[in-house]
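Two proteins, back to back. First:
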Amino acid sequence: MRGFLVGLLVGIVLTVGLGVFALAAVGHTLAVEDPLEKADAIVAISGDAGARTNTAVSLWKQGFAPLIVFSGSAVDPDSVSSAEIMRRDALRQGVPESATLIEPASATTEENASEVAKLMVARKLRSAILVTSPYHQRRADLLFKRSFEPAGLVLRNYPARDLEWDPNLWWVRDPLRSRTLVELAKLAAEILRPAVTTGSHVNEGLDVVVEGEAHRVRDVAKAAAPGQHVR
């Protein structure tokens, strides 16, 4: 009987331990991060603006890019855009206005990606460090690469340094647990959605923004998706 109880206890401990390990693995998978290298711009997208803005400003002050692009529309149609609110916060932290750009039209992560890609091509910027919340970084990476790669843009990931979200303990309490679970569902939906649809839409937008580079963009898109008609 004693051996049975010891075995049961060990089994419970192992099961709990494996469960905790799996949940932590999910957190680290979401918070994808690339080695930092200097880039043409730092891109911070709206949402949990405090940590995202602070991280973007920190990267700028360390000299990783000369420019910060803030992206996001207004939550309230009668107020200024989230991108402008983030920029004002950056200015208060010592970033000159000349070192900032805003993209105030996008309301979703997919729109953030396509609109920022257009802006970067128009400004002849070729590389960016993407800053968003850690639990949002993996999906943002997926969507931004769908928009960036056809235009020949390079993306590196750097999650916001958000002290409230721990990749090992995100599942312990709300609202972080709920936000992360919702993000997992959205990520799964994006992975299952054919990327070719988004890529075609973005390519058309880029052609409108930079007419002179249309042929180059089409060539890159065709190389990435052989046999697909690209207008």
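And the second protein:
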Amino acid sequence: MRRTGPFRAPLLAALALSACSGTHAPAVKYESAAEEEYAAASRRLDDHDYAEAQKLLERVRTKYPYSKYAALSELRLADLKYAQTKFVEAAEAYANFVKLHPTNPEVDYAAYRSAESRWNEAPTDVFFFPPVCERDLTQVSQAADAVTLFLQKYPKSKHVPQAKELLGKAQDILAARDWYAFEFYEKRGKWQGAAFRLERIVKEFPGHRRTPEALLDLADMYMRLDERYRAQQALQQLLVRFPGSPYRPRAESLLAELRPRPDAGSP
């Protein structure tokens, strides 16, 4: 089954804009020629004829630099790299489009695809050997950063649901890395190192499913380090931010133990 995917949508939008424009004959002819060649290139892309599509898109981009189809051709060239699974190149191409065309109607699509490309290049099988903390998660971190920025800049984009799902997957992997390291240090009695990893989870992934447990274990690490005040703060965060957490009873019990008691020898 042929996939038209996202490649045809910008073309349809561009055609609609073209129909509404009121320009002089030479300009109309120029835009019409660009539109025709862009449409031909898009058909080649949809047919997976990538070599010919690239040639035609490059032609539109250079031959009609003042047409809206020049920018759209840049975006389709990024789509081409994505379709060829050249995700690093695709991510850069989409990012360049965002930088060069910040007001283009397709800028949110390009921003999302840049983040998605970084994710597709990342080692997402990190739950298998070797352990998660031994893997290079640079691409996962970059994808999470890119998605976070996308959600901040384009909160009304139609790509928000997919972006949130992608961000959740990336955060699962990054949090698992820190959790693995926490357990490594905790088993060896390295309380400071264990606390540092839990602090990262709490700070970097405030809404993650493991954050309540991280706060509870963080209080335990602080108590072992004889930092009672910081332990109280961690427990209070758990109670305030996650009132329905199953860790609430244990947190309340520990907090009661940590509260200052009257000196038994005082009058």
